[in-house]
Design brief:
- There is one protein chain.
- By secondary structure, the chain is α+β, with helices and mostly antiparallel strands.
- The chain contains 4 helices and 6 strands, in the order H-H-E-E-H-E-E-H-E-E.
- A 6-stranded antiparallel beta sheet has the order 1-2-4-5-6-3.
- The longest helix has 20 residues.
- The protein is elongated.
- About 35% of the residues are buried.
Length: about 150
């Protein structure tokens, strides 16, 4: 039986108001993979007619955050997920609607075992940004940590 992750899209829009403001939608959500979609919105375009680089970064980081939320939702009482660092590479001119596919690159069980051992784990989420034709326009790695909550 598969787990229900339908709560993630609404939770992301409530916890991170920017997600709702910019219009990010979630096409697919699981505990290891999320696809977020950034609509083509003229006021959000840059000088060459595509989405501003900040919005490309934002949708990729949002997708990574959604997969972290899905993977660790049951453990949020123990720890708070935070971005430790991120790196993005802009590969091709992005035009139109963009999709950001985020994949958890370390098993949640390994991350939780490290947390339980008293360490503050770090783990990467790889994100591929593509246009409507499936062409890769950007790649990003977001390194997350789980900060233990104070008792």
């Amino acid at each position: 039986m598969s787990q229900d992750f339908s709560f993630v899209a609404d939770a992301m829009k409530q916890v991170v108001p920017w997600v709702k403001t910019i219009g990010v939608e979630f096409e697919d959500v699981s505990a290891t993979r999320v696809v977020a979609v950034l609509p083509d919105d003229e006021p959000m375009r840059n000088h060459v007619g595509g989405p501003h680089a900040a919005n490309m970064f934002g949708v990729a980081e949002t997708a990574s955050g959604a997969v972290v939320m899905a993977a660790f939702a049951e453990h949020m009482s123990k720890a708070t997920p935070l971005v430790a660092r991120a790196e993005i590479a802009y590969k091709k001119l992005a035009l139109g609607v963009l999709r950001a596919e985020a994949v958890l690159e370390r098993s949640a069980a390994d991350v939780l075992a490290e947390l339980e051992s008293g360490k503050r784990p770090e783990f990467p989420v790889a994100v591929t940004i593509t246009n409507a034709e499936g062409v890769t326009t950007g790649e990003m790695t977001v390194v997350w940590t789980l900060k233990p909550n104070r008792a």
